[in-house]
Amino acid sequence: MATLHNLATRTAPADPFTLTAGRVHEAEGPGRRAFALFQTLRHPGPVLWVLPAHEPQRPMLRGLPFGLGERLMLLTPKGETDLLWCVEEALRAAPVALVIAEPQQVLSLTAGRRLQLAAEAGRTTGLMLIRDGQGSNATETRWRCAPAPATAADSTLHRWSLIKNKSGTSGLWTVNWNGATAAVHLVPPAGERHQPAEPPR
Amino acid sequence: MPLADARAICPDVASRPADLPREAAALAALRRWASRYAPMVASDGTDGLMADITGVAHLFGGEADLRGDLHARLERAGLSVISAIAGTRGAAHALARHGGGIIADGALAQGIGGLPVSALRIDHATAEALSRVGLARIADLTALPRAPLARRFGQALVLRLDQLLGHQPEPVAAGAEPPHFGVRITLPEPIGLQSDVMAGLALLLDRLCATLALHHQGARRLRLELRRVDSGTVQVEIGLARPMRDPVRIAALFAKGVDEIDSGFGIDGLRLSAPITEPLPPEQIGNGPTLRHEDALADLVSRLGNRIGFDHVLRMIPADSKIPERSFQIVAAAWSEPVAAPQRRGPARPVTIFPPEPVTHASGHPPAQFRWRRMRFTTLRAHGPERIAPEWWFDDPAWRSGIRDYWRIETQEGQRLWLFHTPQDPSWCVQGEFA
Question: Which has fewest Cβ within 10 Å: B79, B177, B199, B351?
Answer without folding.
Answer: B177
